[in-house]
Write a structure and sequence with these properties.
heterodimer; A: alpha/beta; Amidase signature (AS) enzymes; 11-stranded mixed sheet; two-stranded antiparallel ribbon; 15 strands; B: mainly alpha; flat
């Protein structure tokens, strides 16, 4: 069931928020031992809140489509009175006295918080194989990773534990779990959604966004999240349009760019074929799919890695005196970041600005880009390398190289399921648009989703 | 080419030698690709990398 369907059922009094919330909590109780998707479950307060939302509905005070809908947030979002660990022992005892801006907005919209989802330690990695809190596992195959760092949010949404879960994305951390778990995930433009009250991994690449089971669920959540926030200086005052695509939305005449080279060079054949199949669907719906040449993505990835190394180590440096409180993979990245001289960091940011200027020319030829989210499907837990064709590649590099560029460039990028591979695992396609054109990205994705149908539920979880 | 071992040694004694060597090896690879990019940056006036606006001006 999607948020739209649940909201319609709530309005028609066919179901109550207490029933929806109770069903989600039952699901969590049943699947948590296998998937480890949650770090904290706020069951009692969720049921109280659901009952309050039902009373409001009964009194005719509907707040909108999220009213009474059970949701979860990654454990990187501050939640008043609820532990916020960031997946690290550093913050194991941290109980904020305030909510992140987006948590306040979701509460104002009537959402019911089920709890805090598991994640890669400090959001600094993509496996969600957390040495302190255990590995989060993929609902499609529990021996595989859900991706990360928002792995618990991806697993929770795809397995039906929550209707929507919030994630953060510094180098793909919303879109990678969306791709590996068969969910829809949106990384909005830089500045579109407030980062106030989100424990930072870095300063200039972090983005906040939703994961859900349908494109329109992501869109209606963005309606609630987007907008200025004086508490976050980087949050934009750009106008917020309505993001929900109309049922009769069309992509006829839209120019959709299919990039040459990089995005399809080193990719599993079954993922390539799923994404190209989606391009064919777009064509059949009247879009003009054209080949497009992009700036050097390897360079943009390199710039992004250097910026991330330096900024993440800056954030964490005060905590590095006690190395025993970090997992080995995160510690290695933090060590590397401490080596980077200020001059190199600044050069990387200068190069980033040039890359943004160069990339803006792409939008003169196309309205949106269509490309794969990840070149592979979810790899097994604990596997460090994957084979793509005849080459072995680090799982972290393989998982991030097609998504990181859009953090560097600050562009809105959405991952949507585009079919199952022969191994029965979901493949993800990415729709990317110009800055602050989330509405266009969501319209393209919604029309394509309408055509190919929603991603099926994982086996055994129908 | 930067001397990453010397830079690592300058950070302080809290990084164990094996962790330092691992970071140096990894950073040498990154730097090998990064240095040619830096040479391409044109010398023109650019904005600062911090906000230079007063809080009163940000309404």
């Amino acid at each position: 069931m999607t948020i739209q369907e649940a909201a319609a059922a709530l309005r028609a009094r066919q179901v109550s928020s207490v029933e929806l919330t109770g069903a989600c909590l039952d699901r969590i109780r049943a699947l948590q031992p296998t998937l480890n998707a949650f770090l904290t479950v706020t069951g009692e307060s969720a049921m109280d809140r659901a009952a309050a939302m039902d009373r409001e509905l009964a009194a005719g005070a509907a707040r909108g489509p999220l009213h009474g809908i059970p949701i979860a947030v990654k454990d990187v979002f501050c939640t008043r009175g609820v532990a916020t660990t960031c997946g690290s022992p550093l913050f194991a005892e941290y109980v904020p006295d305030h909510n992140a801006a987006v948590v306040d907005r979701l509460e104002d919209a009537g959402a019911v918080l089920l709890g805090k989802t598991g994640m890669h330690e400090l959001a600094y990695g993509i496996t969600s194989n957390n040495p302190h809190f255990g590995a989060v596992r993929n609902p499609w195959a529990a021996d595989r990773i859900p991706g990360g760092s928002s792995g618990g949010s991806g697993a929770a949404v795809a397995s039906g534990m929550a209707f929507m879960a919030m994630g953060s994305d510094t180098g793909g951390s919303i879109r990678i779990p969306a791709s590996y778990c068969g969910a829809v995930g949106l990384k909005p433009s830089t500045g579109r959604v407030s980062r106030y009250g989100v424990l930072p991994l870095d300063f200039t690449l972090d983005h906040i966004g939703p994961l859900a089971r349908s494109v329109r669920d992501v869109a209606l959540t963005l309606n609630v999240l987007a907008g200025p926030d004086p508490r976050d200086e980087s949050c934009s005052g750009a106008p917020v349009p309505g993001y929900l695509p109309a049922p009769e939305a069309s992509i006829r005449g839209l120019r959709l760019g299919l990039p040459e080279g990089f995005f399809f060079d080193r990719i599993h054949p079954s993922v390539r074929s799923a994404v190209l199949g989606l391009a064919k669907t777009a064509e059949s719906l009247g879009a003009e799919v054209r080949s497009v040449s992009l700036p050097d993505m390897n360079e943009i990835n390199l710039i992004g890695r250097l910026v991330l190394f330096a900024e993440a180590s800056t954030v964490m440096e005060p905590y590095l005196e006690d190395r025993s409180r970090f997992g080995a993979d995160v510690l290695a990245l933090l060590d590397q970041g401490r080596l980077i001289p200020a001059t190199d960091y600044i050069q990387a940011q200068r190069l980033r600005r040039l890359a943004q200027q160069e990339f803006s020319a792409v939008w003169r030829g196309v309205n949106c880009l269509l490309l794969p989210t990840t070149p592979i499907t979810a790899p097994p837990v604990g596997q460090d390398e994957v084979s793509i064709g005849e080459e072995d590649e680090d799982v972290r590099i393989a998982s991030t190289r097609l998504v990181r560029p859009f953090n560097v460039l600050g562009l809105p990028a959405l991952s949507m399921p585009c079919g199952l591979t022969e191994s029965g695992l979901p493949a993800g396609a990415q729709i990317v648009g110009p800055a602050f054109e989330e509405a266009r990205v969501l319209r393209v994705a919604a029309v394509l989703e309408d055509a190919i149908g929603p991603c099926p539920s994982p086996p055994g979880l129908e | 080419m930067r001397d990453w071992k010397a830079i690592a040694a300058g950070i302080g004694p809290d990084i164990p030698p094996e962790a330092r060597d691992r970071a140096v090896a990894s950073q040498e690879r990154v730097d090998g690709a990064f240095r040619p990019l830096v040479r391409k940056i044109p010398l023109v006036a650019e904005p600062a990398f911090v906000s230079l606006r007063f809080p009163e001006d940000q309404e």
